[in-house]
Write a structure and sequence with these properties.
The chain has one domain (about 1-120): 5'-nuclease (Rossmann fold, 3-Layer(aba) Sandwich). It has a five-stranded parallel beta sheet, with helices on both faces. With about 130 residues, the chain is α/β, with parallel strands linked by helices. β4, α7 and β5 (about 125-129) form a beta-alpha-beta unit. It is globular, with a radius of gyration of 14 Å. The protein is built from seven helices and five strands; from the N terminus they run βααβααβααβαβ.
Length: about 130
């Protein structure tokens, strides 16, 4: 079973003060050995967020300890175009372009489960991992 990994889960893993930290750690431990996947936009988003809020040590933990066990797919031109259309069509500031790219990837690859603490995944019909 492939599980999509979102920014919200990655950040919660690193931020001990995050309300979902303990749950994120337990879920990540349970998912070890499964096919974990994310995309390049999530990596850019989480690195920016972690560096700004948690500092360089946390960025290194992310890059060296967490990302190596997650397959990172590049968002190609076609997927970007689909995500951009969905983003513009939704006309919602609550659902980001990164989230739309995530939904696009998950649908294209038949991924139903998300390791995420973002309610938008459930609203789009995906299950919590």
């Amino acid at each position: 079973m492939t599980v999509f990994v979102d920014t919200s889960a990655l950040f919660a893993l690193l931020d001990e003060d995050d309300a979902n930290h303990a749950r994120a750690r337990a879920t990540f431990a349970r998912l070890r050995g499964r096919d974990l996947v994310t995309h390049s936009y999530v990596v850019v988003e989480v690195v920016a967020l972690v560096s700004r809020r948690l500092g360089w040590t946390a960025v290194e933990r992310l890059i060296d300890g967490i990302l190596p066990v997650i397959r990172v797919e590049v968002v190609d031109e076609a997927a970007h175009a689909v995500a951009m259309r969905a983003f513009r069509s939704a006309r919602s500031v609550g659902v980001s372009l990164v989230d739309q790219a995530s939904f696009t990837m998950m649908r294209a690859e038949g991924i139903e489960d998300a390791f995420a603490f973002d309610r938008d995944f459930a609203a789009e019909g995906f299950r919590e991992a």
